[in-house]
Amino acid sequence: MPKFDCLCCGHCCLNLVDAYQGCVSDADMQRWRQEGRDDLLAWVVTLALGPDNQLHTAWVDPATGDDVERCPWLLDRIDGNGYLCGIDATKPDHCRNYPEHRQHAAATGCRSISWESGDDSRL
Ligand code: SF4
Ligand code: SF4
What we know:
The protein is of the alpha+beta class. It contains 7 helices and 5 strands. It has one domain. The strands form 2 sheets. The protein has a 3-stranded antiparallel sheet with strand order 1-3-2. It has a two-stranded antiparallel sheet with strand order 4-5. Bound molecules: iron/sulfur cluster (SF4) (2 copies).
């Protein structure tokens, strides 16, 4: 079965505001606490919406309190041919799960080769 094949074009990280100004999940927060990733937690602002209801907004520059215009973990490849996620092993769930399916990829501009061949499955 063909497999989702990221081209490392950087489109999703650079141009989809939900990627770099989205909300991270409770699971992301818990994982980063367990991993001791204070460097990541510092870029998240948690809003209390009610009992047991929190919104974790990311990424927010800890120096200025402003929403970022570019993901702070996005790296330019040394060869100049695309981008890499600097926190790939523990990136937020919404990044890990993007794109959710072929239609999502098409609607948001992901040009994965595998899905251009017509395969609907991500893995
Ligand atoms: S837009 Fe698609 S191919 Fe490009 S970096 Fe994102 S997931 Fe990979
Ligand atoms: S955390 Fe990684 S995958 Fe998510 S927007 Fe930033 S660079 Fe892209």
